[in-house]
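Figure 6 in text form: structure in, sequence out.
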């Protein structure tokens, strides 16, 4: 019974994508805007059947942002209800290592923001604690 319940949980993964500003070297975090939900969030998405969660997180970053990323520490896993189903999203800190954003059907806007602005722009309050976690991992808090 527990296996069937666990199988019904939507498994997803994503990254708190960061970089140093090309202008002044300050820390910037990447948020994406999804027009379907009209929200600002971390790049994330559902895992494919049998997909390794970290590989899925990096795939989603590339698909949604156009950036490749170097993964760092695993951050918290967030669990919540979405569309009447339980969802679990595993997150990693990841440094952007190259790429360029091109708007698409799933993500129409991307913003690189300082941590405090990113925290305020995130639509879901549950996503905001990941900003502080990243700062701890990067030893900036």
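Output sequence:
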């Amino acid at each position: 019974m527990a296996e069937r319940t666990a199988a019904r949980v939507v498994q997803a993964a994503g990254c708190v994508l960061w970089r140093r500003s090309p202008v002044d070297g300050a820390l910037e975090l990447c948020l994406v805007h999804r027009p379907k939900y009209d929200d600002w969030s971390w790049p994330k998405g559902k895992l494919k059947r049998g997909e390794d969660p970290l590989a899925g997180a990096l795939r989603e970053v590339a698909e949604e942002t156009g950036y490749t990323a170097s993964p760092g520490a695993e951050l918290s896993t967030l669990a919540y209800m979405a569309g009447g189903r339980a969802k679990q999203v595993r997150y990693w800190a990841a440094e952007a290592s190259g790429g360029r954003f091109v708007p698409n059907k799933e993500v129409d806007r991307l913003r690189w923001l300082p941590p405090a602005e990113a925290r305020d722009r995130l639509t879901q309050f549950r996503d905001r604690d990941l900003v502080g976690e990243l700062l701890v991992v990067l030893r900036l808090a």
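Caption detail: Helices lie at 2-8, 53-65, 115-121, 129-137.
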